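Intended use. Records like the one below are meant for learning the mapping from a protein sequence to its folded structure. Do not use them to infer anything beyond what is encoded.
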Amino acid sequence: MRTAVRCGTLIDGTGADPVHGATLVIDDTTIVGLEREAPRDADQVIDASHATVMPGMIDCHVHFTSSPASVQERLLTPYSLSVAQALNHARITLEAGFTSVRDAAGTPRGVKMAIDQGLFPGPRMRIAVSALSQTGGHGDATMPNGANIRPGNSEMPVTVVDGPDQVRRAVREVLRAGADQIKVHTSGGVMSPNDEPGATGFSPDEIAAIVYEARAAGKTVMAHAQATQGIKNAVLGGIYSIEHGIYLDDEVIEAMKQRGTWFVPTLVAPLWVVRRAERDPSSVPPYALRKAKEVMADHEASFRQAVQRGVKIAMGTDTGVGPHGTNAEELERMVDGGMSPMQAIVATTRSAAECARLDKITGTLEIGKRADLLAVDGDPLADISIVQDKDKLLLIMKDGQPFKNALNGQSGSALSTARAASVPIG
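Structure written out for the chain above:
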């Protein structure tokens, strides 16, 4: 099927200046032309001539099986229910204009497969399955009373491991479970009860073993890394992306630049924790609220330095800590932190696709790429916050199929699963 999308303003995601009055030509799933007029042989013409057309957004750090919940609620949630919740979170995320995501642990491959097969609507996914942690580290879900709120199962390997031999086996088990990338914790964190954000996790020898096994399988490693030394160990150990990066210093920033390490800042995550505590104090443990407040200023300062120094930055949010479907607030936080609106859009499209290793198929509106796109009512270059307003997202298209089309006299979300299915990408 040949579709033409008339664009008022086209932001292609490459960082190039916007183009006015262009028409995208799509054959089935793929962009095949950029014309001035719709071709005569078009089967359908979508008129977005009063809107801004841009690539579908990409979030490089989500947790579909997680949601803002108390420890008690998590203990009372069966694994099967968390899978159903993940599919709901996937739909909500697509409704927010995110056509691809990188899940940073917790989501089994069955969720990804269900979306790929068209059984449920959702974004294209890259998954980490389970995240590796040292005993007592950020990913160790053993509570002070000994209860483990993340016990593992046949699809979710237990990945609290110590020493090079154990981490090698854990990487192999996670790969067997379907991981597209490996997730590790090289520092403590905000939400964990047993450590602090400034604590270091995993030794250089353990990191080397993890990176070796991932590379042997052709995969990348993403590191939850907040502590300066934990970030440094990750970067020098060859880890592909730094998640959160709260306590960057000059040495780490220079090393990231030299090695081409990605930075996924998740600026909105600690803010979400504070907001949640304000709404419902019982839902956030006191230790988590304290840590969230303590890290915010340093987090923002590190991001600002990374922008100024030219570190490669890809957008990510840590949804699951905060509400799914509110991902686009991160763009506003990035602009507040020193990016231009265009830089924030590129970080959420082309750069995010590169970080997720999806750049051969998506992230920009160029010939040969999948037709993952949005039509936005307004100009995000003048007001980046408009991408947070779902009513402003007039068209959400994934793989050339409209998931939502409030143009051409249509309204609401097209929830037919076939419309939101992912075409296999190998």
